[in-house]
Design goal:
By secondary structure, the chain is mainly beta. The protein is 10% helix and 40% strand.
């Protein structure tokens, strides 16, 4: 199908700017769309999940905890892979392979940005060379619509072993004009099927973004935490019902909180029907990591409350360890992303103990962390390193507890 590439409006040669009346109309439409998305009732016809499936870990019998501390760093991206990289995610595949995903190009939001994957086989210390998974041209061809740029993406296997990718594309404007798209792979990300755009909002279908990993219901549904950015910023839940052959049978969006300014939710299944949500604080002044709880498997949520941890308007991630504690990774500070730190909670995220510092260097950026746990109980962390490379850190609970104990004793 041929694509229509708009030319600059008359009277504005080469600028791409709209005439004043059209700009006002677009602003009004933007505000209306934001209000509809924020306050419109969630569409009915679906029910809450009865139970959540246990987190997928590709091992039949959990191994005994490692007693010797282990810590190792590596680079997911080679030097000078692209001028700028950002927003990585990582997952453990059914085979035991690790697969990382990120975007890279000349800069964030540029037309030359692509989504890349890299693989690490079990027992290996080095990552294979990056492979292009999506670029602007391929997204445009597969979606049969104009695509201006691509951005945040997340990958995860479902209970059948099918690998999913959900990624952001923009056809008009900035990130607030984004849409979500799905791709699936039957060979653990070596090849991918075509992109399919998700229809989440009947009004413009704009401004849903993704960042963190999902939860899985026992009925097969996937609960993906997403967020809205058009005029107002707030968290949402996207419930996907997988169809046959990697299709999406149904997708429904649910608003989570009327409180604006909290975005990029990350979900941690707890015992029973409870789920913890940890949120990035986008609001100016006194920023803190926020938490909220669901008692019905992520269907409805209590209001978010500030934690004692600072947040400089930057992404966070969390993971429930095998012993029941919750591990959090975040930027420790109110203004800069120059300290990347771990924190541990033994009471489901109500209070946090300080954990080891992963990176600290004044006025340099270490951001957008992502956590996963492998079949051996080792924890994997990827993050943006100076916007130049994606770094991978691997450690075990013995290292985590040993370093945390030294912090509490004041010997580190």
């Amino acid at each position: 199908m041929p694509f229509f590439h708009p030319t600059p409006p008359a009277g504005h040669p080469g600028t791409g700017r709209l005439p004043p009346r059209q700009r006002v109309a677009l602003i009004v439409a933007t505000v209306v769309a934001a209000l509809v998305a924020a306050f419109a009732p969630t569409r009915g016809g679906i029910v809450a999940p009865v139970h959540l499936a246990r987190e997928h870990r590709p091992v039949a019998v959990p191994p005994a905890p490692e007693r010797v501390p282990f810590f190792r760093q590596s680079w997911v991206t080679p030097r000078a892979h692209t001028p700028s990289v950002h927003s990585s995610s990582i997952c453990v595949l059914p085979s035991g392979d690790l697969l990382a995903l990120w975007y890279g190009g000349s800069r964030e939001g540029a037309a030359d940005v692509s989504l890349f994957t890299a693989r690490r086989a079990p027992g290996m210390s080095e990552w294979a060379a990056p492979q292009t998974a999506v670029n602007r041209a391929s997204a445009e061809s597969e979606l049969e619509r104009l695509v201006k740029k691509v951005g945040n993406a997340v990958i995860f296997p479902d209970r059948s072993g099918l690998l999913w990718m959900v990624y952001v594309s923009v056809s008009v404007g900035g990130w607030s004009g984004s849409a979500l798209n799905v791709k699936t792979s039957r060979d653990e990300g070596r090849t991918w099927g075509g992109s399919r755009r998700l229809t989440l909002n009947p009004f413009l279908n704009l401004s849903s973004l993704v960042r963190n990993k999902p939860i899985h219901a026992t009925d097969g549904r996937i609960g993906l935490p997403v967020y809205h950015e058009l005029a107002m910023k707030f968290p949402q839940m996207l419930w996907l019902t997988p169809g046959r052959d990697g299709t999406v049978e149904e997708c429904r969006i649910r608003n989570l909180s009327a409180e604006s300014g909290l975005i990029q939710p990350t979900l941690v299944p707890l015992d029973g029907d409870r789920v913890l949500m940890v949120l990035r604080d986008h609001r100016p002044g006194g920023r803190r990591v926020h938490t909220a709880y669901s008692n019905d498997n992520g269907w409805t949520w209590a209001g978010a409350e500030p934690s004692g941890l600072p947040n400089p308007d930057s992404a966070v991630d969390a993971l429930r360890l095998r012993d029941g504690r919750v591990l959090l990774v975040y930027n420790h500070g109110s203004h800069e992303r120059d300290i990347l730190r771990l924190a541990i909670s033994g009471d489901d995220g109500r209070t946090w103990r300080p954990g080891p510092v992963i990176e600290a260097d004044a006025r340099r950026e270490f951001s957008y962390p992502f956590l996963a746990e492998d079949q051996h109980g080792r924890i994997h962390l990827t993050y943006t390193w100076l916007r130049e490379r994606i770094r991978h850190v691997e450690f075990n609970v013995a290292w985590l507890d040993g370093r945390s104990a030294k912090l509490e004793a004041g010997t580190q």
